[in-house]
Amino acid sequence: MTDHHSLRADLSVLEIVHTDAMPWTPSPSPGVERKRLWLEGPVEAGRVTSVVRYAPGSRFPSHPHPQGEEILVLRGVFSDERGDHPAGTYLLNPEGYEHAPSSAEGCELFVKLRQYPGLERPQLRIDTNAAPWEPYVVDGVWRLPLYADERHPETMHLLRIEPHARIPAVELPAGEELLVLEGELVDEHGRYRAGTWVRYPPGTRTQPRTETGCLAYVKKGHLLALAGLGM
User: Fold this and answer.
1) First and final CA of the chain: distance in angstroms?
2) Where in the chain is the domain with CATH 2.60.120.10?
3) How far apart are CA 212 and CA 218, in angstroms?
4) Residue (of 155, 136, 147) closest to 224 by Cα position
5) Mean pLDDT, range 48-61, rounded to an integer
6) Can you identify the CATH homologous superfamily of domain 134-228?
7) Rounded CA separation 180/212 (Å)
8) Angle ∠(116,176,98) on CA atoms, nearest 5
9) What pTM did the predictor assign?
10) Are strands 32-42 and 63-64 parallel, antiparallel or unpaired?
11) Superfamily holding 23-127
């Protein structure tokens, strides 16, 4: 009998998680630990969003990725058959991809499993340290596009907000998910320091601001699709 579990599975609820206050928990592979932010389905084979840490010299056995995999390298160097991926590397691995990941020096990752379904999806590797930024919405806000495809609902990008930038109120009819990477973001729902994961449910209205400046990963368009799949 498969062990199923739900963690923050109600996508209609605002979720704010300060990952720096969470304990690390072991994975099935020695030296690899995780902090699970969202999980729906089998404990070791469900749809999940996590922060994952590899100790120096640790590795994971070769494994496939049903419904794809999304990775943002936060710290250190992550490695697999495609090479070494230093901090700032963004990876999308489609269905059918199999690898044996490792880290010689240790690393920390933001990982989303089973959230990139479709055999026609491209495999991507973006060095966000070198990729160009574009002006976005208002003065003082910049965007680095990561993924968009008119055949699929989700878009992903990095967002950089300069200190004291004036941002108008934002309507999120389809919701939004973000991870603060640097600085601090504030809105009427809370204060989000580096490492904070936020999931705004569809229909949220918010007016973000920052005094320090902020860098964040942002994903839009996926929550209604997940809800439609019974998530």
Assistant:
1) 21
2) 23-127, 134-228
3) 18
4) 155
5) 96
6) Jelly Rolls (2.60.120.10)
7) 12
8) 15
9) 0.94
10) unpaired
11) Jelly Rolls (2.60.120.10)
